[in-house]
Amino acid sequence: MKPVGFPDIVADLRARMPGLRGRLSANEPLAPLTWFRVGGPAQAFFQPADEDDLACFLAAAPRDMDITVIGLGSNLIVRDGGVRGVVIRLGGKAFADIEVDEGGRLRVGAAAPDMFVARRAAEMGLDGLAFLRGIPGAIGGALRMNAGAHGGEIKDVLIAAHGVTRAGARIVLSNADMGFSYRHSQAPPDVVFTRAVFQTRPGDRNAILAEMERITAAREASQPIREKTGGSTFKNPPGEKAWRLIDRAGCRGLAMGDAQVSEMHCNFLINRGQARASDIEGLGEEVRRRVRETCGVDLQWEIKRIGVAD
Description:
five-stranded antiparallel beta sheet, four-stranded mixed beta sheet, Uridine Diphospho-n-acetylenolpyruvylglucosamine Reductase, domain 2, single chain, alpha+beta, Uridine Diphospho-n-acetylenolpyruvylglucosamine Reductase, domain 1, Uridine Diphospho-n-acetylenolpyruvylglucosamine Reductase, domain 3
């Protein structure tokens, strides 16, 4: 396989923003940051030190430069050719803190893993966020796609989402501003979410923890969570289940290279070891084709796919 790399743009970026405090690197491998463990590098990779650092970077970056934001990589395919421009990934205490206000409002950094937020709320006897235990990834991605599981969705609990625009301006979006629908929001695509405020309600700590254990057991029994996977691959069509359509089309266990439709839950694709991003995405497209021909339904990707083909 030919080496993958982009021209180095980091020196120019550093010259534009000498006060930058975060980590900025060239041709950073992205595969280790995704659950599928596939894909090429980021042309430039930036981890801001805090929200001020992020705002500084976005304000100074060239207007025509591509900027892509990733989280924990759980719902993501990075294509084999990598990602042009800048990939931003929030991390560290500045973006992962969890605090509770009076009235049961939970303020959560966008890089906080969903399951950690669910656990912290439960330990404080705050109910309403247990469903996050069943969602891989971090809060930023959950905001962007109105993540949901086990009867709960982000739209049910969000008060406000804080972020920084492409121009470096801070913005606060209300629940209504987000324009939530099934696995989707209408939030401006250029906003980098930095924090969310959730409304909780008083609850019994032991009862909430027990519900989270139930969710965990249900996931382990029905989903290949110990495999290299990206979570649910396709959105459920109205009135249907994606896995049922995939099964009906005869795709359970279907393989392409080292990519395979999970035998355990056929709305999950897995990397059996040496799959490339093209294998996984190609398998997904083959599944879509067979479901379209067999069931007359056009499945829509739930997994985000970014970058360029090799």
